[in-house]
Amino acid sequence: SPSVRIAPSLLSADFAFLAQEARVVIEGGADLLHFDVMDNHYVPNLTVGPLVCAALKPHSSVPIDVHLMTRPVDALIDSFAAVGADLITFHPEASDHVHRSLQLIKGKGCKAGLVLNPATPLTVLDHVLGDLDLVLVMSVNPGFGGQAFIPSALPKIRALRRMIDEAGLNVAIEVDGGVKADNAFELGAAGADILVAGSAVFGARDRAQAIAAIRERAQQ
Ligand code: DX5
Ligand code: ZN
């Protein structure tokens, strides 16, 4: 599939040198920076919040893609929008009022998306698909980098692609978890538009080469 965008996940970067790590992947061709927010409540891990996003923002010439793995979400939507998040996604089960949270994101001028865990069915999108800029399909259970890709994500991405195309909508499909050059071809062919990659990019000695390899395979 043509023009797949690559979003390196900073979760696997060296947080002591975050601006430098961001610069290396932006110069290496990253289209977005994926920023994972974990709260030790919705997921069993704790990362960083709006303060770190604010510090990173002046060092990023590409959009910042904030993936909220928190419960609840509304107060953090406000905080991340205020510090320059460009896209904000959240897990529908973590908001009491999913439609309201989506409107909150869009009202701040950010792009809005829902995140589907491996066991979350596509039917959660039924009444909100037209309100979304993107859907993030998790191909691991959220909480940690470096986990193995769950193959049931592939038929799910294909079904989501059909659902979006049949509705005539322009909703991007983003995939997160275990993405590597090895599975990028199948992901691109299934209809993914944006590939998140943490360990596959930051674990590589040459990050630019890792980004290029994923993009090349996804667009074959
Ligand atoms: C996991 C995070 C991912 C993570 C992916 O909960 O949402 O963004 O960084 O890491 P890899 O690409 O190593 O699976
Ligand atoms: Zn993520």
From TrEMBL:
GO terms of biological process kind = pentose catabolic process; pentose-phosphate shunt
Q: Which cofactor does it need?
A: Zn(2+); Mn(2+); Co(2+); Fe(2+)
Q: What is its EC number?
A: 5.1.3.1
Query: According to the lineage, what is the superkingdom?
Result: Bacteria
Entry's cofactor comment: Binds 1 divalent metal cation per subunit.
Specify the enzyme's EC class, one word: isomerase
Asked if the keyword Metal-binding belongs to this entry, the reply reads yes
Q: Where does substrate bind?
A: S9, H67, G143, F144, G145, G146, D176, G177, G178, G198, S199
Recorded catalytic reaction(s): these are: D-ribulose 5-phosphate = D-xylulose 5-phosphate
Q: Which UniProt keywords apply?
A: Carbohydrate metabolism, Isomerase, Metal-binding
Q: Where is the signal peptide?
A: none
The biological pathway it contributes to is: Carbohydrate degradation
Which residues of the sequence carry a binding annotation for a divalent metal cation? Answer: H34, D36, H67, D176
**Keyword rRNA processing among record annotations:** no
Record's GO cellular component terms: cytoplasm
Q: What family does this belong to?
A: Belongs to the ribulose-phosphate 3-epimerase family.
Known function: Catalyzes the reversible epimerization of D-ribulose 5-phosphate to D-xylulose 5-phosphate.
- Protein name per the record: Ribulose-phosphate 3-epimerase
Q: Which organism is it from?
A: Pararhodospirillum oryzae
**What gene is it encoded by?**
rpe
Q: Which residues of the full protein are shown?
A: 51 to 270 of 277
